[in-house]
Amino acid sequence: MLNRLIIAAQKLSNWLVPLAALAIVAGFLYIAPAGILSKADAIGYAVCHRLDARSFHVDGRQLPLCARCSGMYLGAVLGLAFLSLTYRRSAGNPPRGVIIILVLFGLAFAVDGTNSYLYLMKLTYGARLDFLPTLYIPNNTLRLFTGSGMGVGMAVAVFVSLNQTFWKDWDNQPVLDKPRDLLILTALMLLADLLVLPEWNWVLYPVAFISAGGVLLLLTLVYGMLWTMIMQQDNHFLTLREAWLPILAGLTIALIQITAIDIFRLWLTHTWGGFPLG
């Protein structure tokens, strides 16, 4: 009986998912501010505080995501692109040494994020919170670097999980099993960060769309995997063309989440800018 229901749901979803995708895309475009960069802002608005002082700026306006989130999603997109080109269907966990390095990236992200939050609270509420400990004065450079390190770790986790979930022909080869590959990926990440820091417009315009697109990409992949497991289609696909339905379903769910959060936050704060403080 359960199998029959799942088969019926799979057939029905072939029609319902595309219709739902069209509806939610139209809804998102309607509620988001006018302009393509403002659409990217609306994506960042769903996952980031978007405080102006903690963001990089292009032509006098802040990027869709703060410095930390810009680094995180830029690192995630870079990591996914690198792994897709070099490891394709590999789905084995990285070697222990690589995992330790990625964990250290995550710890640096957590320490800098916590310190930055405590510093913000002290600035906002003054003497009442002077007792809060801070290790150093936070800055956007550290936010960018620690964010991008975290993004690389996220890319590895999503890449391995996706390959194990989607593909019939996934390979048990560990990702980043060659030390040079982790060095190359880290070097590419650092190079991207160094290009962002001068805030050149010709760099930041692509970064704005890549980082906002990274939010949508990661959510789409995670929800696509969830859809695949619910529909009991694990290890069912050989090509991206065959996997169009779970990918589209993941995109639809991601946009539903983003649109719902945007509507709630706009109702709560009455602004598309950063969270009001004080």
Overview of the molecule:
The structure is a single chain. This protein is mainly α and 278 residues long. It has one domain. The chain has helices spanning 2-31, 36-45, 67-86, 96-125, 140-166, 179-196, 201-230, 244-269; strands spanning 57-58, 61-62, 90-92, 171-174. The strands form 2 sheets. It has a two-stranded antiparallel ribbon. Helix 3 packs parallel to helix 5 (140-166). The relative contact order is 0.17.
Extended strand count: 4
Radius of gyration from the CA trace? 20 Å
* Strand order of the biggest β-sheet: 1-2
Quote the distance from N terminus to C terminus: 57 Å
Features:
278 residues, mainly alpha, two-stranded antiparallel sheet, two-stranded parallel ribbon, 69% helix, globular
Explain briefly what this protein structure is.
The chain has 278 residues and is mainly α. The chain is 69% helix and 4% strand.
Give the helix/strand layout.
Blueprint: H1 2-31, H2 36-45, E1 57-58, E2 61-62, H3 67-86, E3 90-92, H4 96-125, H5 140-166, E4 171-174, H6 179-196, H7 201-230, H8 244-269
Parallel strand pairs: 3-4
Antiparallel strand pairs: 1-2
